[in-house]
């Protein structure tokens, strides 16, 4: 899953942070709850920096900072693999075979960052799923 967290207001972003999270073994009919207070970012000038793995400790001495509260969190797309190993992408209501992106473009902002989430999300079953 990739998403962008923008800080500022709707007319001007002071910070745009791109996150990419690889979730393995997610059960069908599951909700994931991410603790936004745990999100971290590192300022970057490169769109090709490697994202840290979910749950990896992120240290201030390595340049990681607490993500300020975003005014917008935009989910760019969700990717997953089915039980047969086929990769899929859900994007704006469509479902199609997945091909990895070449780069992640953020919204216009004064500063850009790469994000990391050092705490695994809480997984909950969806009550209305049959």
What does this protein structure show overall?
- An eight-stranded mixed β-sheet has the order 5-4-9-2-1-6-7-8, with no helix packed on it. It has a two-stranded antiparallel sheet with strand order 3-10.
- It is built from no helices and ten strands.
- The mean pLDDT is 80.
- Strand 1 and strand 2 form a beta hairpin.
- The chain has one domain.
- The protein is 0% helix and 45% strand.
- It has strands at 2-9, 12-20, 30-33, 40-43, 65-66, 72-81, 87-91, 94-97, 109-116, 122-125.
- With 130 residues, the chain is mostly beta strands.
Q: Key terms for this structure?
A:
130 residues; mainly beta; eight-stranded mixed β-sheet; 10 strands
Helix and strand topology:
Layout: E1 2-9, E2 12-20, E3 30-33, E4 40-43, E5 65-66, E6 72-81, E7 87-91, E8 94-97, E9 109-116, E10 122-125
Parallel strand pairs: 2-9
Antiparallel strand pairs: 1-2, 1-6, 3-10, 4-5, 4-9, 6-7, 7-8
| SS element count, helices | 0
- pLDDT under 50 segments (min length 5)? none
Query: What percent of residues are in strands?
Result: 35-45%
Record field, number of beta strands: 10
Distance between the termini: 24 Å
* Category by helix and strand content: mainly beta
Q: What is the arithmetic mean of pLDDT?
A: 80
* Rg over CA atoms: 15 Å
Can you summarize the main beta sheet?
Answer: 8 strands, mixed
Q: What is the count of distinct domains?
A: 1
- What series of H and E elements makes up the topology? EEEEEEEEEE
| Form type | globular
Strand order in the sheet with the most strands: 5-4-9-2-1-6-7-8
Query: What's the helical proportion of residues?
Result: under 10%
């Amino acid at each position: 899953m990739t998403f962008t967290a923008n800080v500022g207001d709707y007319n001007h972003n002071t910070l745009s942070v791109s996150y990419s999270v690889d979730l393995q073994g997610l059960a069908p009919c599951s909700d994931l709850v991410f603790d936004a207070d745990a999100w971290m970012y590192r300022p970057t000038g490169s769109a090709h920096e490697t994202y840290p793995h979910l749950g990896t400790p992120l240290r201030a001495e390595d340049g990681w900072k607490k993500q300020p509260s975003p005014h917008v969190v935009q989910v760019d797309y969700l990717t997953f693999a089915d039980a047969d190993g086929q990769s899929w992408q859900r994007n704006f209501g469509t479902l199609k075979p997945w091909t990895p992106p070449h780069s992640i473009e953020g919204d216009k902002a004064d500063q850009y960052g790469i994000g990391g989430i050092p705490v695994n999300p809480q997984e909950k079953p969806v009550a209305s799923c049959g």
